[in-house]
Amino acid sequence: EVQLVESGGGLIQPGGSLRLSCAASGLTFTNYWMHWVRQAPGKGLVWVSRINSAGSITGYADSVKGRFTISRDNAKNTLYLQMKSLRAEDTAVYYCVREGTRVEFDYWGQGTLVTVSS
Amino acid sequence: QSALTQPASVSGSPGQSITISCTGTSSDVGAYNYVSWYQQHPGKAPQLMIYEVTNRPSGVSNRFSGSKSGNTASLTISGLQAEDEADYYCSSYTGRSTAVVFGGGTKLTVL
What we know:
The complex is a heterodimer. By secondary structure, chain A is mainly β. Chain A has strands at 3-7, 10-12, 18-25, 34-39, 45-51, 58-60, 68-73, 78-83, 92-99, 105-108, 112-116.
């Protein structure tokens, strides 16, 4: 059974930094592109970032480009999202998501809440 | 990258059929058949319902179907059931570095 378990969320002051982790199990982690998708309270889903299976290709939403960095450790089956210069509008549940073979998001973690507030 | 356009809400009675539209552009929905649909119940993670416009993952009811015409994709749910009440989101591949764009979401109410 595929499991994606996020951690690292919490309350952080504006301008601060936070690193999210996503531990993957039940899949051959090195075979898949991985993504982060976020959802602000009461709002819709927003794509944040992606990384290829080798960790050599990344992409970011314009709203986080230059502030967030996606990475992965294939030896540890773990995906990361380093977030810096956090803003109130970054407040959201952050989901770790596996991309299937047809650019579909077939497995989602339970999400981790990041709250940016003073 | 602008979000895909979905109606904010739709409703239907048990047993009826409803359709949710998802309108993009010739750079996303119109350009690729990588359109997916997700169901999200309150407090839960989204669940994949349709991928590649028309395909259902294993375990998803055949009451759910997808289609596309031009820049607009659609999700149809037939034989509405109370458990279908949820938020639904479409997504499309964009072919750009921003990769994927979601719709704003549609709240389905089963009357």
